[in-house]
Each structure stands twice: as structure tokens, then as C-alpha cells.
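WARN retry 2 of 3 for item q-0093 after timeout on previous attempt; input resubmitted unchanged.
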Amino acid sequence: MPGKRKRVVLTIKDKLDIIEKLAVGNSSKELALIYGIGESTVRDIGKSKEKIITYASGLNSTSGLSRRKSMKPATYEELDRAMLEWFNQQRAKGTRVSGPSCLKQAQFFFYALGIEGDFNASSGWLSRFKQRHGIRGIAIPGDRPSGDEAAASRFCSGFQELLERENLRPEQVYNADEAGLFWRRLPSKALRGEGEPGGPAPEGPKDRITVMCCANATGFHKLKLCVVGRAKKPPAFAQAAASNLLVSYFSQKGAWMERAIFKQWFDESFVPQVREHLRSLGLPEKAVLLLDNAPAHPNENVLKSDDGNIFVKYLPPDGAASIQPMDQGVVATMKRHYRSGLVQKHVDEGGDLRAFWEKLTVLDAIYEASRAWNTVTPVTISRAWKNFFPENAGFDFEEGGVSAVHLATIFKRAEGCGDVDVDDVERWFDVDRAEPGYEVLTDSEIIRRAQGWGDDSSGNEEEGEPGLVPERPISHAAALEWTESLLNYLEQQCDTLLSDKLLVRRLRTTIRKKQKTPR
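OK item q-0093 returned
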């Protein structure tokens, strides 16, 4: 008679591994033998897939996954949520959190949340909090301040060892970083009425989107720009094949990057695009993505391809900004190209600057941001990797030929912009340099969110807010009539390019086919 099976308690990492193996076709019976558990346990893990992945995404280190065996909640769940939100924001800013400051903040949140009970902000509580969320490196008084160059240097050395161990070339090494973009912002002195002391009104939430740039260390593979906006995904985006989309677009009420969106981008955009690029070069489909410690980034153990060959490595909390490639002028250059592109678009179209800016839509901004990202050169990107690949250093960083002097001259010609000068344009270029791509909460907002109130930034757009494209349907007959009028106009213009006329003729043919095809 066989002996009783020894009870095995799996770690969160074991459960994630089982979920991955189930996804690629391993049977419950096979996995039960490998892990020494019952088949019913394997099936239960498969049924709890979403819950386990969500929990693992919130842990702050891989070691936490390897040690933690249960998803048992904290005694004071509201306090735990508030402290984790606060800690993640401090870490994302590069602020080192000492044990005493962490305990002091916990005590503040406990009373501010109005929790009933007897809470002791002790080292024991701190230890359990760290263990629960896989947190390492809460500093003690006397440690060196944030921006630790030694930590950054150690990471770069260790990363080189990783590349050698995994046999990865610069072509297989990527970095991604998100940032806020004030897409409708003008220079502060632009469009002022006579005698008015200030420029345009400050932007509200609707005038901001999040953009995320991602490229490899050679600069020759730039992934499609990732955009998070408030508006729902337009039908045109939903119906097109993923490979044909202009950008990777996601909607979120506050236009913030969040963990669920980032994981979806990683699985559905990053991994497929990287695989396709490496296949085209005849390289192994293996790559690493470097990320900073933003609260919107899930745990690295849930950010990897099914075969584990495309994975994530996190930069050190201390000194990340000094070595993260996209922070070394790449995102800033994209924004300069975006703003200069809008000005050039106004010049090309002619007319009144105020009317042009008032008609600007978020869809226009997405197209222009995509064009701006495509304009960033491989040289600019490769130089930004000089901390990891010194041979990429080359010459000093350039701003991609975007001239503040030239733009200031254009502005001065526009009505209401006579006071715009070079300094004003330079400030305009940097207006959202420090704007993060994730939501930063005050202590009061953290408290409200921990209590389940005021989480207005999650989900899709507000009811009544327009999408990216008009919802009023346009008939094939109307589209054909407008196309015919446009073609007649182009034929009458002596300076019309043949390529433009051929393009409109192709559109006319497409519309005619759709008109004849019954739905």
C-alpha cells in the first residue's frame, strides 16, 4: 500500500510556473508528479490564474515570490493598501525610505483611515509588511542618499554579466519609459490678448495623455509608440490588424499607465514585435527589457513570454534616472519633435494660429506623437545607452535639429504671439519634462483610494466624453461624393503631385467596392 503523500506547500512563484506550464499544454497529471501535489490542486491553481497573477503583479521583488506561500491578507487591509501605494510612489521618485519614516507614515495612515483596533507601528509589523509584499532595501538612518552612483555602477556591471550569461547582443536589449504629454500646450506668452498678463489657460486632465517610448540599444528597432488616453479605443483601431496600427493605444479614465495596461502592452505588443524583429535578423527570439520602478510596472515574474526567453530586468531604485536610456534625452527629443511638428503643421495649413490650436484633437495629437517618435534617430537612441555600452557614447547628445530660434520666429509672425521669444520656446519644450506617466497621489488621495473611494482614474472614459473618432456614421455614398469632389479639385490644381491624385483614386476605388458589397 503506497505511503501517504507528504504535504507540499507551493510558493507564489511555483504557482506562476504551473500556470505557465498549463498554458503551453502540460497536463495536470504531469505537473502533479513534478511538484508532488494532487491533480485537483493543479486544477485549482489553473482556476485561480487571474487572482494569482494579480497578486504577484503587486509584489515588489522576485525574492518575494520565491518565499511567499500564501495570499493571506493583512490584519488591517486598508492600512496595508495605503502603505504599499505610498511606498511605491516614494521608490518611483528615487526617495530612500528609512524604517523609522515608514513606521511614522503607517501610524499616520492608521489614524487618518479611522481604523478601529490596537495598532503598534513596530519593527515586527514592518518586517511582516516587507515580507508580505516582497520588499527589500528599506534604508536605515545613515545610509547614503538617493541617486546612489555606486548602486547604478554595480547594476551596470551586473547587467553586463547577465548579457554574457544569456548570450544577448545589443539588438536584443530594450528599454521602455512612459511620460505625460501636454498635447495642447502652447508657449506661455502665446495667444495673449492685448494687455493680458498671462498666456493660455493651464491644461486640465483632458489635455494630457501618456506616451511610452521603447527601443533597443542599437536604436534600429523602435517599437510602435504606446499611448494611453482618456477616450475609448476608436472603431478604426479595433478593426485593424495589430501589426497595422499606428500606435499601441489603451484607454484609461485619467490617461495614466497602470499595471493591467502595462502587462497587456507587454504580452500583446512588446513580445510579438520583438519576436518579429529578431526573426527578421535571424537572431534567437530572446530579449531583455529594462524598466524603472514606477508603480505602474508589475512584478518582473509576470512580465515574460510563455517560453521565458523574453523577460524583464528592473533598474535599481537608487540612481535609475541617471542610467535609464529613455531618460537620457530620448523622450525629451520625441516631445521636441512633437511640438515643432505641430507648429510646422500650422505653417503648412496656413490660417489663424488660434483657430488651428482650438481645432486640435487628441486624435491629431496621437498621429503627431507617432510621427515625432518615428523622427527620433537611431544615433540619438544608441547614445542614450552609453552607461551600458560605452562604445555607443560617440559625440555629445544633440536635440535632433529642432531649433528654438526657428520656432520663435514662426510664433512671432502669428497674431497674439509677438512676445514669444527663444527662452519661452525652450521652456515650452520642457513644460512636461517631469510629468510622470503614472498617477501620483497625495496622502489624502491615498487614504480615499485605500477606503475604496475616489478611484475615478480606473476604467474607461467618462460617460459622455467623445471617443477619438466621431460616432455619427458616414455612408458610403457620402464618402464617395466627397472623394469625387476632392479628386476634381486636385485635377484643377496645376501643382498637384501625381502621387496625391493616385492616392485619392485608390480611395475612390475602395469606397466603390464597399458600396457594392452587401453587409
